[in-house]
Amino acid sequence: MPVPTSVFVTAFLTVMAASTHSDYSCSTQPEETWVPMDQAREHLIQRGYHIRSFRKTRSNCYKLYGFNQEGKKVDVYFNPVDLSKVKERKNG
């Protein structure tokens, strides 16, 4: 019995979605070694970011959505251990 094409398409899309989440990981260190979120948030504000949202991601990052020092919209992923920038996407 032939397998429907939709099964292959669904499997392919699932693999592609999973690979985009696993393309990077900000930290493999235990959470006890991370900078606490409130301290990280305050540090990033002092660095000139205007934060709309700030959260922990499934890829062990801190993600900032807001504005950078030049006032451009950004999504920035930080290593939660040392707050180094891992990935940045400018939206405007």
Description:
Residues 8-88 form the PepSY domain. InterPro entries: PepSY (IPR025711). This is PepSY domain-containing protein. The chain is of the alpha+beta class and 92 residues long. The chain contains 2 helices and 4 strands; from the N terminus they run ααββββ. It has helices at residues 5-21, 37-46; strands spanning 50-56, 62-67, 73-78, 85-90. It has a 4-stranded antiparallel sheet, covered by helices on one side. A hairpin with a 5-residue loop joins β2 and β3 (73-78). The chain starts with a helix and ends with a strand. Mean pLDDT is 84; it is low at 12-22.
Q: Strands, helices and their partners?
A:
Blueprint: H1 5-21, H2 37-46, E1 50-56, E2 62-67, E3 73-78, E4 85-90
Antiparallel strand pairs: 1-2, 2-3, 3-4
In short:
With 92 residues, the protein is an alpha+beta fold. The protein is built from two helices and four strands; from the N terminus they run ααββββ.
Count of DSSP helices? 2
Q: Segments where pLDDT lies below 50 for 5+ residues?
A: 12-22
CATH class: Alpha Beta
SS-based class: alpha+beta
The mean pLDDT is: 84
Would you report the number of β strands? 4
**What value does the Rg take, in angstroms?**
17 Å
